[in-house]
């Protein structure tokens, strides 16, 4: 009698365990399906992922691609061979989104600065994520406004391509940063009112040298307040032509030299204060035959004459100040003016030298008009 009762109890226990396992497995598959669906929705119509492997505590995305939208300067906004998301298990059990670590490996990232100066990164991804989170029901909208935390993001073994339409509108100027590694720490959504730390290192390959670039600091994304340092070391000057040369359709006039830059920028209430130093090493210029050409706003002939005795190193100190909300304020133009003033001072270009260069410019315009009238 006792043995039969024990067998019945054992059978019930086994049945309960099996039922719980079935429920757990079913719940797991449902959770996996939901996670995959959310990832696909977050990538949006321009995004794709070949494989999603859901496990705990990691989710691995393989061969991820985010195509550039209409008007984007290149085919892809982002590509990555692998993205690994590491979940916080305790927060996951409480239905909170908390990623301890995100690793983006073997990647390509394009950044576009539009003609109006706005910098765009991962276009449409934010909008797609909002749509995925905020469909037309109260529960989804509530979920969209829930707290989300990402502790650490690392970008490994990749490249970043910067397209600047503010200096060349028809064909944005391209700067490729290879061997790029970057980290982003503490992203607290949706408010983004806390400091997020940023760092990046990479290489810029030029025709004669491979220079180094670094960027680091913090930013409050919601308010744009930030404190950052940018450095360039041994970068070919010719790779920065549009920022230093003002040309009238002539060939580039930089034949040699490298540039070092240190820029410490602080933004508070949309006002920027950025002291910096530029060092031009072994700068060499040649005449392109066009009297309209200038280097840092100085006529080429005057600059070449002044450089004859200063071929080793030219150091320029400057300070950028302005209101980022002022449509009349341009970082590019402000930097150009500051560098031009410092360059003229460093070279000791006299008023006569600049006047002579201006005279050559006027003469060149006159000759061009005469040639045009003869045709």
TrEMBL record:
It comes from the Bacteria. GO terms for cellular component: plasma membrane. Coiled coil: none annotated. Keywords: Membrane, Transmembrane, Transmembrane helix. Pfam families: DUF748. The chain crosses the membrane at residues 12-31. GO terms for biological process: regulation of protein targeting to membrane. InterPro entries: AsmA-related, DUF748. This is AsmA family protein.
């Amino acid at each position: 009698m006792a043995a039969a009762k024990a067998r019945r109890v054992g059978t019930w226990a086994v049945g309960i365990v099996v039922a719980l396992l079935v429920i757990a497995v079913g719940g797991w598959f449902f959770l996996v399906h939901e996670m995959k669906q959310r990832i696909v929705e977050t990538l949006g119509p321009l995004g794709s992922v070949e494989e999603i492997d859901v496990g705990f505590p990691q989710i691995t995305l393989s061969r991820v691609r985010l195509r550039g939208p209409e008007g984007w300067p290149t085919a892809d906004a982002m590509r990555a061979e692998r993205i690994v998301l590491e979940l916080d298990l305790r927060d996951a059990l409480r239905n909170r989104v908390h990623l301890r670590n995100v690793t983006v490996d073997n990647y390509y990232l394009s950044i576009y600065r539009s003609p109006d100066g706005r910098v765009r990164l991962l276009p449409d991804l934010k909008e797609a994520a909002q749509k995925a989170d905020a469909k037309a029901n109260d529960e989804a909208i509530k979920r969209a406004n829930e707290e989300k935390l990402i502790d650490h993001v690392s970008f490994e073994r990749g490249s970043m391509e910067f397209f600047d339409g503010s200096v060349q509108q028809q064909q944005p100027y391209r700067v490729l940063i290879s061997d790029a590694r970057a980290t982003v720490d503490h992203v607290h959504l949706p408010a983004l009112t806390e400091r997020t730390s940023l760092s990046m290192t990479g290489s810029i390959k030029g025709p004669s040298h491979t220079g180094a670039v670094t960027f680091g600091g913090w930013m409050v994304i919601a308010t744009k307040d930030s404190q950052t340092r940018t450095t360039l070391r041994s970068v070919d000057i010719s790779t920065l032509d549009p920022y230093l040369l003002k040309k009238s359709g002539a060939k580039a006039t930089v034949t040699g030299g490298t540039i070092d830059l240190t820029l410490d920028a602080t933004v508070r209430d949309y006002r920027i204060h950025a002291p910096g130093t530029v060092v031009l090493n072994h700068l060499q210029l040649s005449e392109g035959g066009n009297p309209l050409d200038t280097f840092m706003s100085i006529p080429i002939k005057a600059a070449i004459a002044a450089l004859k005795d200063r071929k080793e190193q030219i150091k320029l100190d400057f300070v950028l100040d302005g209101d980022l909300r002022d449509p009349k304020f341009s970082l590019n133009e402000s930097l150009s003016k500051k560098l031009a003033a410092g360059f003229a001072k460093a070279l000791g270009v006299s008023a006569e030298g600049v006047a002579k260069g201006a005279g050559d410019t006027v003469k060149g315009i006159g000759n061009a008009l005469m040639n045009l009238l003869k045709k």
